[in-house]
Design goal:
Layout lengths: L2 H9 L17 E8 L5 E6 L2 H9 L12 E9 L2 H12 L1 H10 L1
Antiparallel strand pairs: 1-2, 1-3
Helix pairs in contact: 3-4
């Protein structure tokens, strides 16, 4: 193995080898809720990069939220594990969770 191949192995992140885009190196997960300014629509999602994903919603890159732009951020919460974040996301997507989000709105 020459030096160039050795450096590629050192620089290549671990998460590239996992299926379905799962990330090993991500330390924090975020649950975000955004509310449409033009309609009565609340979107809840689980993300790793909060700035990029919320920006995608604002710029109509996401098919699900395209018709409801522009948005304001209602809630962004940080979690250490994906399991915790997923549990909170499922709660916020439920009926009682949506009612909770409407009170913060």
């Amino acid at each position: 193995m020459n030096l160039y191949n050795y450096l590629i192995v050192l620089v290549t992140p671990k998460w590239r080898n996992l299926p379905a885009g799962r990330l090993v190196e991500a330390k924090l997960y975020y649950v975000h809720a955004i509310s449409s300014l033009s309609r009565t629509y609340i979107y809840v999602g689980l993300i790793i990069n909060k700035y990029r994903r919320i920006d995608e919603h604002q710029k109509d890159y996401n098919k699900t939220t395209r018709a409801n732009c522009p948005f304001k951020i209602i809630l962004v919460k940080k979690y250490q594990t994906r399991q915790e974040a997923r549990k909170r996301e499922k709660y916020l997507k439920s009926g009682i969770g949506k009612e909770f989000l409407k009170t913060i709105k």
